[in-house]
Amino acid sequence: MPTRANHPSIPQYSLEESRPLHRQPEDTTTFGYSNLEEELKIKGFELYSSAGVRAQMGPLKSDYYRISISVRGVTKIQLGLEDFTHGNGTISFTFPGQIFSKRGLSDDAFGYYLLFEPAFLEDTIAPDRIPAEFPFFAYAGVPFMQLLPAELNAVTGFVERINTELQQHHHGRDKAIRLYLYLLLLELKRSYLRQELHQTIQDTAHTYLVPRYKKLVSEHFLTKRKVADYATLLGVTPNHLNRAIRESTGHTASEAITDMLVREAKAALRYSDTTIAAISDQLSFSDPAGFNRFFREKTGQTPMAYRKNAAFS
């Protein structure tokens, strides 16, 4: 069974537990970890190409870091409350505990993705230092960016070197893979800093408030349900926050909180066998009937109907 994160309503998967969720059962490819001999596998790290990947995944959480590299084609992804479109030369990042989903994989899509546990690089960097060293893995960071052709070539070159090490019994292969992964992260950080993405959330009030508000909602929505709570965290008035969110997104600030509740409920219904009553309690509804009304109003289905339909999708 999947391990549980801070909030038990949504499963948080380890590397091995999540593999059937992102790889097709009939996958016959041989890149990276796909059909890799058991004795060649390395604890805490996996690498794949998009060949053999499922077209849809999530929403769910994982207890590892993810780097997704798009070489061509299109994929829609969602990180917390933020929507992104993968295209040629784009990169996205997720960190442990973040809600992730993917859909809309185009027929010509191709790329790579690397998955690694926080402790995998501990010989080079302490696990708790990863978000500070590589800001695209932090809540306040930008989790999506576009690479220049030369940068993409450098990154995919490291991916190919890692794959070569994985497939061989060479002396020191484990250390080589860790070093190549660290160098890949440094290459990505150089692009991140070149684009000054670390400064984008500070440019104007609105560009700061909107992404920061969405990240805070993704992190605290189970315990903070009022817009005023987030306004306090952000150091603005509720009216100012509401106005900034509406002008930027066309929706109210409270709709973002509701959206996260719906996504959490859907994930719990789809990926766990927790009872409807227990999910209602975990999401802090006064009673199951109130949860049923809320879910039906927002989705057009009862929680039970959604769970049954999800089992066949």
From TrEMBL:
SUPFAM superfamilies: Homeodomain-like (SSF46689), Regulatory protein AraC (SSF51215). Keywords: DNA-binding, Transcription, Transcription regulation. The keyword Transcription regulation applies. Residues 211-309 form the HTH araC/xylS-type domain. It comes from Chitinophaga flava. One of its GO terms (molecular function) is sequence-specific DNA binding. InterPro entries: Homeodomain-like_sf, HTH-like, HTH_AraC. PANTHER family: ARAC-FAMILY TRANSCRIPTIONAL REGULATOR, TRANSCRIPTIONAL REGULATORY PROTEIN. It comes from the Bacteria. SMART domains: HTH_ARAC. It holds the Pfam family HTH_18. Residues 1-29 are annotated as: Disordered. Residues 16-26 have a biased composition (Basic and acidic residues). This is AraC family transcriptional regulator.
